[in-house]
């Protein structure tokens, strides 16, 4: 590999004041979009590309590459997150405490940042040090005790508005990439990802930036850090998105991540499959007349004596029904065992299913998989799953036709039910070590305010 001769290789932890003509070697763990800046002094347009290097579990540094717009755009395409690179002839600059740049870059351990100059510096892919640097991709940049749960974020709501938080969560679903144009004519892309953790609460994360979008194409359960939390007044819910400070660590090598993976592999999916079978016991939901508040539904699941499913009639407001936000509400399932099936394979991979073992022919279909939140005067019931029949009734078409609905049609359907009073008949399955039971809604009927007021229980 050709490297500029006067560059001196130095470890990030050994960088000191006045260091110049440095060669930094490490793995790229974060990369931002190029930014264009017009200088006030001579009115010259310059570009900056910022990325973060890591050369040990505890040493990280931000690099700011400056140059002409064409040079920076070309540089941006030469490497990506996960590449091991040699960055030559850069200058170390001490980070001032009041430096505003730190507000827009990942938190790092080095007291310096590196300046990359178009006329002097160089970046080259290094393919000979993979064993040394590649494992660093799986080590979180924040200590294990620094992560919030999704439930923590949901409960604190507006208190966390515009704050940066660290999350340890698994990816449950990924939507398609959305494209749109800003008012000044710039093109943007993003996608929404649904996260889940041991609290079995879900959270929507919006992914911005070409590098993170590319990374998300192959996602499996992950750990994300420094995502921005915003309270959306219109939706009255928490919105979480990546930012210029976000670092995503895939398959993190920490005990908490292994525990999360084990939890989601065993409890939730098995319990959901069990509940799918239980639902068949209630072909006529109208027989469910045991009235409960949201708080009582949760309290019942925490009763040690309650080890089987139970039903309830809940009078509540439909607090979330965001069918116009994402495109993953339709899934392909095996009709024998209710496992999700990869549509491209059209084959059930459940070893305990007759089709998975090859003893029966595949029988798959597209159905709705929609989660909603119920709200009454006692609290929230989150992550309540609609049966396919209920979803079809609300939306007005089969799951196979959902993709034909326009965004405007989906929004119109949503507001037919969102924030409306409802009579909800549901079945709940308590799960040990979890506060919230797994809930499936068997029927949902709208009520007038007078009906709701006369029926809602006091406790």
Folded structure, characterized:
The protein has four domains: 8-138, OB fold (Dihydrolipoamide Acetyltransferase, E2P) (Beta Barrel), CATH 2.40.50.140; 144-255, Nucleic acid-binding proteins (OB fold (Dihydrolipoamide Acetyltransferase, E2P), Beta Barrel), CATH 2.40.50.140; 281-326 and 369-455, Beta Barrel (OB fold (Dihydrolipoamide Acetyltransferase, E2P)); 330-366, no CATH class. It is built from nine helices and 22 strands. The model has no long low-confidence stretch (mean pLDDT 82). The chain is an alpha+beta fold.
The CATH first-level class of the largest domain comes to Mainly Beta
Q: Helix content range of the residues, please?
A: 10-25%
Structural class: alpha+beta
How widely separated are the two ends? Answer: 72 Å
Q: What is the average per-residue confidence, as pLDDT, rounded to a whole number?
A: 82
Number of domains: 4
Q: Number of DSSP helices?
A: 9
Number of strands: 22
What is the C-alpha radius of gyration, as a whole number of Å? 26 Å
Kindly report the CATH topology of the largest domain.
OB fold (Dihydrolipoamide Acetyltransferase, E2P)
CATH-derived architecture of the largest domain: Beta Barrel
